[in-house]
Each structure stands twice: as C-alpha cells, then as structure tokens.
Amino acid sequence: MKEEQEIMIEAFDNKKFKLRFIDNIDNKKAIVTHFLHNLQNGIGNHFEEEAFQYLDEIIEFKNDTDNLKLNRNDVVQQIQENIINVPFPTPNNFTFTFIDLFAGIGGFRLALQNNGGKCVFSSEWDKFAQITYKENFGEVPFGDISQETTKSYIPEQFDVLCGGFPCQPFSNAGLKRGFEDTRGTLFFDVVDILNRRVESGNPVSVVFLENVKGLRGHDKGNTLKTIIRTLEELGYTVASQVLNSKNFGIPQNRERLFIVAWRTNLNLTFNFPLGIDQDENLIFHVNELINATNTNVGQILTENPDPKYTISDKLYAGHIRRRKEHKEKGNGFGFSSVNENTQYTSTISARYYKDGSEILIEQEDANPRKLTPREAANLQGYPENFIIPVSDNQAYKQFGNSVSVPVIQTIFQEINNQLL
Ligand SMILES: C[S@@+](CC[C@H](N)C(=O)[O-])C[C@H]1O[C@@H](n2cnc3c(N)ncnc32)[C@H](O)[C@@H]1O
Fold it and tell me: Residue 302 in contact with residue 375, Cβ under 8 Å?
C-alpha cells in the first residue's frame, strides 16, 4: 500500500464512517484491537466474527471514499503493526491471563505484564483514559462494564481479574445478603463476572482489587464486610491489607487498601509484602523490587521544568491565606510544599489539576511550582517511556486516579509465587 493508504485504528473515528455505519454502543475499536492482540492464543476467536465485520466496513468505506483497492490482509497487517509498535506491547509468551477492569491508564496492566501476564480484556469508559491506554498498550478498552454488551466480550476463561473499582454504598449492607446487597454498584458487576465463570465451571483463580483506605471504615465497616462475604459466597478466601507507597521505594505517602481473593478449595494462604517502613525503621516481608530503603522527592523531579508550572502570585497568596485560616481553626490543613530532600510527598489525587495544593515543589527565588505531568507519572512509578498523549489537566487526573505501579507489581509478584 502507498503511504496515503495507510489505515490506523483511528480510522474508525472518521465522522463520515461513523455516520454511515451507525452503531449504538461503539465498541468497534475495542473489538478490533482485542481481536488482533489475541490472534495467536485462541482467545481471538471470541472477537473474530465482529472484528472482521468491522474491518470489512472500514475497507468498504475507505475504498469508496478514497477510491482505493484495499483488501483484508493489507488492512489487518497495517492495523496490527499499528498496535504492536507501542511502548508496552502485549506479550507473545505469557504464564497467565488477566482482565483489566476500571483500567484507567493501565497501572495494573503494566504491573501484571511485567509479571508475565497477558491481558485478554480491558474496560474503561473515560475517553481520555482510553487514549492514554491505547497509545501505550495498543488496545482500546471496552466501555461501561455494567452493560451486558460489554460483559459479553469477556472471554470464557482467564486466570486473574484485577481492578480499582469505585467505592459506592451498598443498599442493604448489614442485612447479610452478600451478593444481593451489592446490586446497582460496580462491585456487583465484578461479582457478576466472577459468578458467571463459577457457574460455567471456569472459575477465575485470583481476584486482585484496589481501593481507597477509607473503604475499611465505609458504612461502619459494613461495605468491606459485604465485599468479603460476597467473595466468600463465590468460593474465595479473602485477604486485605492497607499498604503505603512510601514503603515501596516511591516518595509518596499514599495509603491504599488491597484485596486479594483466591479459590478456597486450593487450601492456600497469602502473605502481603509489606515493604520497608521508613518511619518505624522496621523491615517487613520485602520483595527484591524494593531496593530503596529511603526515598526522597529528588527521585522523581525532572530538570529544568517549564516555568508555566510555577504558580501565580495570586494562587500562592490564596494558598497562604487558606493555610493561615486552617491553622487558626486548628485543623492544620493547607498546601503542602516539599523539596528534593523531603522524604515523600502527600497523596496525589485526581483533583491535583485544580490548584496543585497537595504537592508543591519549593523553588529558589520563585513561587513554588506544580509537578509536571511527567513528574506525576514518576510519582506513581510509571516508566520513563510511558506516553502521556493528553492535556496536562487530563494527565494529572489520570495519574492521580491511578496506582503506584511498583506496589501493584510487588504484590502481584507474591500472588504469582504464592497463589498461581
Ligand atoms: C480509580 S480509577 C482506576 C485507575 C486504574 N487502576 C489505573 O491504574 O489507572 C477508576 C476508573 O474506573 C472507571 N470507571 C468508572 N465507572 C466505570 C464503568 N461503569 N465502566 C468502565 N469504567 C468505569 C473510571 O473512569 C476510572 O478511570
């Protein structure tokens, strides 16, 4: 094919194409990328029929509108190259398969791929997160996981289900009805997916979930109890643990709750790796990945950041005023400024893009500055070659919402050793 005839997966975004081949739920890019990623392992069959239908649609459209003579082979080859030439391609050799739910920008995927895993299904409905995911992994995630259509694309068999699901109140938590209590929440959808695999005789081996630390105390502890009880009803044994990123070589004070569940009939136990407690100076069950016993913010800073990240006099004055007000009220909250020698920052959240007050970097002879998006990526342990294709605001949201990759990778290494 000539250069101008090249077809990328983005061809499906062409407005005229969309108008001509109208579709209620647009999963076309997800279906085609999932199909091409799974050509060799049999799972591709699951997506094949529709994938070819959509590839034929795009070929017909391109040939008509641009007067071309493309055929299926050419187009499959082109799009396949397009999705393989990414920083974190799907591995050909793997030791287990997983599905990536509430995938965000793929923090779990990165960590599990690094442990020898192959992702066979991903779901994330935010279109900006989907862009970042596609640029880095060559796969477009499916959309809303609560939709039956989305669930129908999940392969019959896979080993691990992972995801950081949003924390929502359960309707009747405390009534001891487990599964039924979770109806209408996204955890219900996780359970629904697991339940279908149990019923079809292909139970998922391991469930690996992440949530905010506050989930433990949510609804007086009933939410977590219901989650555990529901998983137990499905035949899993459950362990949960709050871990802090600062104890895993990451200079960020980020506490998160991790839940690991495995098939009860395996009679196994699971011990979380606890990292290195920097403040207590105690060494817990440590994984070889954690080589930094002491972190500092200097680890994640970049050289010569653009002056646009320095906050304005007005914003800075506002931060100082609020800090004073908070101090007077005795709640001590205010902006948090750090320098390269500070051991760790506070938690980066999805709202960091608003004013950066959670983490400001002190500067000589200038107002403090926000982290750059690359530094936000570093603060979550993302590798240097992770592509950030979105605006700064979207990037802050995405990294704030994400996970500290080395923490996930370390826990999963133990899951691999102890449970798989
Ligand atoms: C806490 S974030 C998880 C981030 C992810 N672990 C990462 O590494 O980037 C939760 C994600 O779930 C997504 N989400 C929420 N409801 C969803 C739904 N019904 N279907 C698919 N994705 C959903 C949100 O857009 C958000 O990106």
Answer: yes
Residues with a CB atom less than 6 Å from ligand 1: 102, 104-105, 107-108, 123-126, 129, 144-146, 164, 166, 186, 401-403
Cα–Cα distance measured from residue 166 to residue 261, given in angstroms and rounded to the nearest whole number: 18
Domain 96-289+403-418 falls under CATH 3.40.50.1010: no
Residue nearest to atom 11 of ligand 1 (CA): 102
- The preferred substitution site among 88, 98, 101, 102 for testing ligand 1, maximizing ligand atoms within 8 Å of CB, is 102
Q: Tens of pLDDT along 13-34?
A: 888 888 888 765 679 999 999 9
- Average pLDDT value for the chain: 90
Ligand 1 center to 158 CA (angstroms): 20
What's the rounded Cα separation, in Å, for the pair 321 and 328?
11
Please classify residue 387 by burial: count the beta carbons closer than 10 Å to its beta carbon, then call 0-12 exposed, 13-18 middle and 19+ buried. middle
Per-residue model confidence as pLDDT tens digits over 353-400:
988 889 999 999 999 999 999 999 999 999 999 999 999 999 999 999
> Which superfamily does CATH assign the domain made up of 297-386 to?
DNA Methylase, subunit A, domain 2 (3.90.120.10)
Mean pLDDT for 227-232 is 94
Model confidence pTM above 0.90: yes
- Copy the structure tokens of residue 314: 């007005």
CB-based contacts of 331, cutoff 8 Å, min separation 6: none
Where in the chain are the domains? 3-84, 96-289+403-418, 297-386
To the nearest 10°, report the CA torsion of 163, 123, 146, 40: -110
Could you tell me the pLDDT band of residue 334, with boundaries at 50, 70 and 90? low
Q: Are 17 and 63 in contact (CB under 8 A)?
A: no
Q: Whose CA is nearest to atom 2 of ligand 1?
A: 401
Q: Would residue 167 show up in a list of annotated catalytic residues for this protein?
A: yes
Residue 279: count other Cβ atoms within 10 Å of its Cβ: 11
- Of 39, 167, 242, 387, the catalytic one is 167
